[in-house]
Design a protein that fits this description.
By secondary structure, the protein is mainly β. The protein contains three helices and eleven strands; from the N terminus they run H-E-E-E-H-E-E-E-E-E-E-H-E-E.
Length: 182
């Protein structure tokens, strides 16, 4: 709303899940929006996320492949469903494993990861991390508040930290980065 007041005709090119912070692309007009939409549909745009996961992820990197479908019984949640789900693939790389002070003398094991979605399904990173057994800290939908003391997380610990795309006017390859605030 604030951008539209300042730049009439601007439109969102993509979205972030509620609670996710970070980079977004906004088109200043319909022609630029169409060019961006084409890049997203052809999967020439790459995205990178930073996240804090509950527990220590044992493998240093990996791939999660699991089809995702709407969960009609638990809207707005999504579910892993090989029968009716759409293919979804995410890569992860461990950045660091550490402990954070929790309630009392409890030390919470956490893992900072770099996540790269290769597809763009609703809640994909949240549900794939849950499937891996390491929910995103602060995630109220997929278990990131179940870790003792994790209810102290001030927010969903997921940040869109990297976007790579071709500028629709100049043709220049853009690498936008914004460090995670957590």
């Amino acid at each position: 709303y604030r951008l539209a007041a300042r730049f009439p005709g601007c439109t969102l090119v993509h979205r972030l899940d509620f609670g996710t912070s970070g980079l977004m692309v906004i088109a200043r007009n319909k022609a630029v929006n169409a060019a961006f939409c084409q890049q997203f549909s052809q999967r020439t745009v790459s995205k990178g996320y930073s996240a804090l996961l509950c527990g220590h992820v044992p493998e240093d990197e990996g791939m999660i492949e699991a089809a995702i479908a709407k969960d009609p019984a638990r809207f707005p949640l999504m579910a892993i469903c090989a029968a009716s789900g759409k293919p979804a693939r995410s890569r992860y790389r461990v950045v660091e494993r550490f402990y954070q002070a929790g309630e009392g003398d409890v030390a919470l094991p956490l893992t900072r990861v770099a996540l790269t979605p290769e597809t763009g399904r609703t809640h994909q990173l949240r549900i794939h991390c849950q499937l891996m057994g390491h929910a995103i800290l602060g995630c109220d939908l997929y278990g990131g508040r179940l870790l003792p003391g994790a209810d102290r997380a001030p927010r969903l610990m997921l940040h869109a930290s990297e976007l790579y795309f071709t500028h629709p006017v100049s043709g220049e390859r853009i690498a936008a980065r914004h460090a995670s605030p957590f």
